[in-house]
Amino acid sequence: MPVLIRKHMSLSHHNISKVRELAVRYDLSESELVRRAIQAYDPEQPRPASTPEDQEKVAEAVLDHVQTALGAAIKAVESANVRIDETLVSLNDPNRRISIALEVRKEMDGNPGFLDEVSYMMAGANRSSGESS
Question: Which superkingdom, per the lineage (predicted)?
Answer without folding.
Answer: Bacteria
